[in-house]
Amino acid sequence: MASNGETTAGKRAPQRVALIGATGSIGKSTVDLLVRNPDRFSVVSLAAGRDHAELARLAILLRPEFVAIRDESGFEPLKEALVGTNIQIGAGREAVIEAATWDADLLVSAIVGAAGVEPTHAALQLGRDVALANKECLVCAGAPFMRAAREAGARLLPMDSEHNAIAQALGGADPATIERMIITASGGPFRTWSREAIEKATVAEALNHPNWSMGPKITVDSATMMNKGLELIEAHHLFGVPAEKLDVVVHPQSIVHGLVAFADGAVTAGMAVPDMRVPIAHCLGFPERLDAPTPRLDLAQIATLTFERPDHERFPALALALGALAAGGGLPTVLNAANEIAVEAFLAGRIAFGDIARHAAEAIDIAEKNGEAKEPASVAEALAIDHNVRDRSRRVLATSRL
Ligand SMILES: NC(=O)C1=CN([C@@H]2O[C@H](COP(=O)(O)OP(=O)(O)OC[C@H]3O[C@@H](n4cnc5c(N)ncnc54)[C@H](OP(=O)(O)O)[C@@H]3O)[C@@H](O)[C@H]2O)C=CC1
Ligand SMILES: CC(=O)[C@@H](O)[C@H](O)COP(=O)(O)O
Ligand SMILES: [Mn+2]
């Protein structure tokens, strides 16, 4: 193959793509774009958590070389579904890492939660380019994670919509030279609700996001606005911008996703309809542009774009995340782990909506008192803090009953 990716016959070889979190919301949107561009992409590996039936369907559609299922009980049904193919199959934690590090040009990292840290980090260490949807990687292990990418010469392409918009709005400018970086928040389903009503919101109400169709964990994070807090921490690490230069503005239409303000007063913004296939297409095509079948933005039809300041009283999770970002050290790791377990408990009907932020605040207090919140020096140290907090949160919330 020639150095520009073209074969000696002049035709460009398909880009080899590994996709972890294939059965989820980002995974399916990614697959939608990949199957529309069969000459451009070849899917070489897939990984998922538990949904062996959907993983098998995707494997038959995409014909990867390797598929991995985290839940070991999914191995036999997956094997049965793929009889007659030459697709290799693995199950368990190591198999997911194998899928992430499979020989590929690009890894799309779309597992939800800190479960994505190990496989994504393993790929970065090999110098693999990574399109990063999973924001928890950077909240749990930001500094060592970014260091691994730098040291291995791996490129991190931001797939989260706000960060992708900002990467585009930067237009090649050095983030160190900018005045402010602003991410927008839809405000979620409870943007106009009273604090008392938010406190008692049901699972169905929290899952009713006004603009985006996403997996359950991030949808609940949007409702608490923890998602925006996690995204500020994500932006801090991705772009190397200090907390004081980062801001959130509530924008209920989710058309403007991220903005960059420069020293001369100019502001550039990344805009698009709220459809994740826009940032996914940007990452897959980069540095070129893919044709994506997304609805086009028609500003005259939308007519009104509005902006508000976030309300930290009604959305204490945002204030909590801002505090963790400012304090640094291991606090973002603690916050992320406690939030994941609290969201799990809320979705299982064991705690109230208002308990999510309360539990995360308590976890931070305990970690500070116990001296457990020191800066993780490595991804392994970050994961040790994560596991410790997770275990404690599970114990604390196990006995909760509404
Ligand atoms: N959805 C969106 O629009 C956006 C999502 N993101 C981020 O992208 C990530 C994915 O979100 P989303 O697609 O909504 O989430 P989903 O819940 O829809 O999908 C999660 C995926 O992760 C897999 N998974 C879960 N646990 C494991 C594990 N231990 N090992 C391997 N695979 C696992 C699931 O597999 P299975 O279903 O088979 O169990 C599924 O494929 C999150 O970090 C989210 O914050 C960022 C911006 C927008
Ligand atoms: C699509 C995406 O990037 C999500 O993170 C989205 O931003 C969630 O919506 P909120 O703005 O309500 O958190
Ligand atoms: Mn986002």
TrEMBL record:
GO BP annotations of the record are: isopentenyl diphosphate biosynthetic process, methylerythritol 4-phosphate pathway involved in terpenoid biosynthetic process
E.C. numbers: 1.1.1.267
Quick one: which residues bind NADPH?
T23, G24, S25, I26, G49, R50, N134, E136, G215
Q: In which pathway does it act?
A: Isoprenoid biosynthesis; isopentenyl diphosphate biosynthesis via DXP pathway; isopentenyl diphosphate from 1-deoxy-D-xylulose 5-phosphate: step 1/6
Keywords, A to Z, come to:
Isomerase, Isoprene biosynthesis, Magnesium, Manganese, Metal-binding, NADP, Oxidoreductase
- Top-level EC class as recorded in UniProt: oxidoreductase
Q: HAMAP family under this entry? A: DXP_reductoisom
Regarding protein family, the annotation reads: Belongs to the DXR family.
The protein's job, in short, is: Catalyzes the NADPH-dependent rearrangement and reduction of 1-deoxy-D-xylulose-5-phosphate (DXP) to 2-C-methyl-D-erythritol 4-phosphate (MEP).
Q: Which NCBIfam families match?
A: Dxr
Q: What is this protein called?
A: 1-deoxy-D-xylulose 5-phosphate reductoisomerase
